[in-house]
Amino acid sequence: MMLRIRSRDGLERITIDNPNITISQLQTIIQTQLHIPIQNQTLSTNQNLLLSKTHNDLNRFTDMSNPNTPLSTLNLTHGSIIFLIYDGERRVIGPATAFSPAGSFGRKMTMDDLIAKQMRVSRQEAPHCESVSFDRDCADAFQRYVNETLAFAVKRGGFMYGRVSEDGRVEVDFIYEPPQQGLEENLVIFRDHEEEKVVEAIALGLGMRKVGFIFTQTVSQDKKDFTMSNREVIQAVEFHAESGLKEWVTAVVKLEVNEEMGGAADVHFEAFQMSDVCVKLFKEGWFETEIKEEDDPKLSKMKKDVVVGVKDTKEVDNDFFLVVVKILDHQGPLSSTFPIENRNTQVTMRALKNHLDRTKSLPFVKRISDFHLLLVLARFLDLAADVPALTECVQTQTAIPEGYQILIESMADAA
């Protein structure tokens, strides 16, 4: 099996005979084949490792820190990339060049050889997903907040959860909004991995999974001539690459001003997939991720030349990376009336009491069939036992066991 190792020296390859080896054995192979001492190596499957500046930064990357962890548990396959930081200096030894009768400069290059060595960027005609359908309530709850509360003045984002059908149709049934800081041109997502574990447990119990990323553009961006900015492309393709889901969808929500209608504004949803070549370029580290103020937002910068049409360039129009996805809507199984996490006001148990009082006329399972409510409850429940039991009832719309109902009502009454 071949693995690719990306470090400050670029992309190198190593060969392993057994995919079931441990990380310790992998480090020995790296020492043997790439001449980097084991004690100098820090490994991770997370590319952000390469941005680390201090030892404290390095300590955040623990997925490959246990020398006894088998590689088979890390979902590594032939051609996977592992990221490496090492202390000290080394001399990079390139592949040996065999003698060729074509002369001292090696064998003659054919046109096919030259093309194979280039990274070509072209438009991808068809997405891998047939369509994306939004639950009306969850889409409305997201757009109303950014429209009425944030007034599209700063950016907002969330992860979309739902289902993917066998024929590639994506259905979005809820949007989880992680901790974040929205600015006029930038959106900083603060990944809370403990909270995300709870979200994933709830989604699993509901028969759902993470299917995409949604974000808003600000009013000021509406005046600019791009579909997505370079910052947005990098953020979107990072989440797409992380997901490993070929049907992954990126949705953009914007306020479009219609001058012909006297300046009236409409909220508009658009959906895309990041193209295969975009994901490949990101995974292999071609993107310049440090964006300067003077950079044109409609162009993504590459670290080395790619071929667009017949031209070698380090700047690619972002539209080359976007594949349009058809948008539909549906009425999903969940409501979206409970206050949503990580917004301006903290969600308290008082909100739970108000929600239960407001929905008294409904069966109890209907009253708690809201992802955002389940997220609040799950913080006080056993993730391995209670959350699966509750979410199974919600998924099948069967009666909530009396013990859980009493517990939830007592939590609300204690507010």
TrEMBL record:
Gene Ontology cellular-component terms listed: nucleus
Metabolic or biological pathway: Protein degradation; proteasomal ubiquitin-dependent pathway
One MF term in the entry's GO annotations: ubiquitin binding
Keyword terms of this UniProt record: Phosphoprotein, Ubl conjugation pathway
Segments traversing the membrane: none
Domain annotation MPN: ranges: 131-278
Record carries keyword Transcription: no
Domain of life the protein comes from: Eukaryota
The keyword Iron is assigned to this record: no
Biological processes annotated in GO: ubiquitin-dependent protein catabolic process
Similarity comment text for this entry: Belongs to the NPL4 family.
Physiological role: May be part of a complex that binds ubiquitinated proteins and that is necessary for the export of misfolded proteins from the ER to the cytoplasm, where they are degraded by the proteasome.
Name this polypeptide is given: MPN domain-containing protein
Organism: Lupinus angustifolius
Biological classification of the source: Eukaryota, Viridiplantae, Streptophyta, Embryophyta, Tracheophyta
